[in-house]
Structures are given as C-alpha cells and as structure tokens.
User: What shape does this take?
Amino acid sequence: DAGVIQSPRHEVTEMGQEVTLRCKPISGHDYLFWYRQTMMRGLELLIYFNNNVPIDDSGMPEDRFSAKMPNASFSTLKIQPSEPRDSAVYFCASSSSYGEKLFFGSGTQLSVL
Amino acid sequence: QKEVEQDPGPLSVPEGAIVSLNCTYSNSAFQYFMWYRQYSRKGPELLMYTYSSGNKEDGRFTAQVDKSSKYISLFIRDSQPSDSATYLCAMSRGSNYKLTFGKGTLLTVNP
Assistant: This one.
C-alpha cells in the first residue's frame, strides 16, 4: 500500500484566496482525520470522519474551514477565504479505529501571504 | 494544566548515547500510549504502542509507562544519526476516544 497520499505538498497563496487540500486514505481504513501542526500549538485535530460521515468538527477553527469526504478514497479540506494565520502544515491521517494507531500522510505546507 | 506535557527540547546527543524522552499527563483515564517519530518535512509515524503500565521493547527502543506517576518514557539505546527527528507522545482512553498528542521533542544525534 502506498500509504496516505496528500496533495499538494506545498501551497503558497495570497490572503483571501480559496485553498483546497486533498487526501487519499489507506484502503480499508474507516477513519480519516485532518490535523494542523504549528510550532506554537503542536498537532491539532480539526475534524474526523467515520465511514465517510463527519463525526466531530469541533476542532475546525472557523466557518472558513470546511471538509468533505464524498467517498471512502478521497477527502478535501477547504479554506475560503484564507488568512495568513492559516499558515501551517496540514496532515491527513487514516486508521482502522478511532483512538489507536494513526497513519499520517506527508502533509501539505500551506503559506498564506 | 495541559492534558499532555512534553519538553520541546531541543535535545542534542553524541552518537551511541542513551536517549531518554518523556511525557507527563493529567488524565488518569488514559490507557493507550504511543510514541510517534516525525522526520523533517514528513508526517508522524507510529514507533511504539503500549497498553496500560509496564515496559515494551523493540530493538533499540524501549517504551515505559508509569500510570501511578502519570509519566511515560521512550529510551533509545546506541542512538544513531538516523534517529534525529521529533518524537511525539500520544495517548487515549481507548479505541473509541481521540488521541491527545504532546507537542514533540526535537532530537539531534551527532555523528
């Protein structure tokens, strides 16, 4: 298995633009997680899905953030409009259970200028 | 008080040294304890996984859990430059509860 695949690896955009991050989880994993990592706050859970259904989005910082999982092999995290404080590394992870072993992608480094 | 505390370092050691990485936590309900290793510009990868108290060894790595003290450790023996990475502890109450991560400790092993 190729592992969790994220795209793009790097994204540089200007404030106010829409940003879409993409993720392909490991086949057979029922859980998909979106995390954000910064030096100040570490890894923060934004939202997670179980069987393509969003279960907990309490970590989503604002209404500017939205996530979808239209099928078992694809998820997106969208920021609209983007702001400089959104600059961070965004990770997607998948798992066969909720509170145990997570498998992370390589992340998307987002810079909002 | 944060649920999980981890010294961010940085920690710099010579090759061959024994490394000790630690986390403390406040939630006595945590039952599952993990260590993730994160190389620069990569996602975290699971390194060690333990349930409840005790020790677990895997090659040069030993994970130790002391629930009475709410303290977990990761020991690396005969450290190598390839061990240079950020190490994050993580814990949860069980398979139906979310993982809580420490902020990570940056380790550099110098040849």
The first strand of chain A starts at residue 5 and ends at 7. Chain A has a mean pLDDT of 94. Chain A has no helices and eleven strands.
